[in-house]
Design goal:
- The protein folds into two domains: 166 residues, GAF domain (Beta-Lactamase); 66 residues, Arc Repressor Mutant, subunit A (Orthogonal Bundle).
- With 250 residues, the chain is an alpha+beta fold.
- The protein is built from nine helices and five strands, in the order ααββααβαββαααα.
- It has a five-stranded antiparallel sheet, with helices on both faces.
- Helix 1 packs parallel to helix 6 and helix 7 packs across helix 8.
Length: 250
Amino acid sequence: MATEHELAARFAALGRQLFREDDAVPTVERVVQLAIELVPACDDCGLMLRRRRATVVTASASSPRGERCDNLQYQLDEGPCLEAIWEDESYLSGDLENDPRWRRWGPAAAAEGIHSVLSIRLVSDDETIGSLNLYAEEYDAFSADDVDTALIFASHATLAMSSARLVTGLRTAMQSRHLIGIAQGILVARYEIDVESAFDVLRRCSNDTNIRLSDIAAQVVAAGALPPDLLDRSLAQETGRRGHDSPDPP
């Protein structure tokens, strides 16, 4: 058993490893890898994340078996990893085949060779964002120390993922803004309109087609012009608006 000093040093090193990544995808993959390294009893690991509209997806899994154990929970609509998310709890079981809490998923997981599970909910700003799911072949595989270690690691992992998602979101927003600016410049040069009018044209195309503004801008940048099916209508509307707003000639 590691001493408190050894554990503190280990978590400090893990924190540095996690925060090396500034993108969400490599971060979740690293979380799964480190969980197995940190808890030796763990044979497979999966990381579920909540998405919009009350959906849950497996963001990363250490192995095909780990992913199958996650997928079985989606298919059967039961299991500790889902409950860790929806019930805001963490779950431990050392005999899945006979655990009365999951009468369908437990035997299905046991058929995969998994007999123990430790599901830790991941919480950011008082909101559950997902669950870290440790699977083991042995019965009663996870000790009290394993549970404590996994809980501490989950806190580090949540901070790292939240930071990476924020950085990824900011980077995406900056890239979109830059792309829209380039598209505006193309419209100004090609159709002899001003910058404000160019943005209005892009926004109108987005509204008319229900396509994101940044995606419309990407089409303009790729083609060097408006999409042909939107060209006449969008520019006609913009020309009409400008004509209506212009003062009458003396």
